[in-house]
Amino acid sequence: TQLLEQSPQFLSIQEGENLTVYCNSSSVFSSLQWYRQEPGEGPVLLVTVVTGGEVKKLKRLTFQFGDARKDSSLHITAAQPGDTGLYLCAGARKTSYDKVIFGPGTSLSVIP
Amino acid sequence: GAGVSQSPSNKVTEKGKDVELRCDPISGHTALYWYRQSLGQGLEFLIYFQGNSAPDKSGLPSDRFSAERTGGSVSTLTIQRTQQEDSAVYLCASSLGYRAGEKLFFGSGTQLSVL
Description:
The complex is a heterodimer of chains A (112) and B (115).
Chain A: E1 5-7, E2 10-14, E3 19-24, E4 31-37, E5 44-49, E6 55-58, E7 61-65, E8 71-76, E9 85-92, E10 101-102, E11 106-111
Parallel strand pairs in A: 2-11
Antiparallel strand pairs in A: 1-3, 3-8, 4-5, 4-9, 6-7, 7-8, 9-10, 9-11
Chain B: E1 5-7, E2 10-13, E3 19-24, E4 31-37, E5 43-50, E6 53-56, E7 65-69, E8 75-79, E9 88-95, E10 105-106, E11 110-114
Parallel strand pairs in B: 2-11
Antiparallel strand pairs in B: 1-3, 3-8, 4-5, 4-9, 5-6, 7-8, 9-10, 9-11
């Protein structure tokens, strides 16, 4: 049983389109993170959100943490081919000394 | 070193053999994590270390898997009597501390293939 679910599993869009990917759980998390992974590499952190309702922007990427701290979304505006990769959400339930678990990922392909 | 280093980068072994995977975390990082990733899938938590101790071993798939960390630095993941289903990329990550939301720095992984 996955503690963190992600949707969609796969997404293929044209360059310039907008998209949103979701990360959901029935559990409350003290923090949620989004990572992006490219083939043959380890994941790289994009953002960390810790406050319910928090919104963070990173250039064309907008991240939101749900009010109840059980879900998060990642919105990409005007997707570029360089955005292609596996997007992973990750969370820790305790505020410290806790393992970090990952969702199954959303594989994004942006076609030029 | 500048980042998390894992070795070997690729390992091909025969079913039934033992393998050791090594992780050198970033100097000064006190937390260390091991994950397993099958092709195109998310990361499956295996084990994490606070210093040299592992408070949560629940992610290890079977008793053929073990891990240790010495001197609060290098960690080794050992798989005994490997099986074909052990084939995956094994990723190691480290973080500076133990607060939730600490940034995890990942190595490039070890691709394990069991024939």
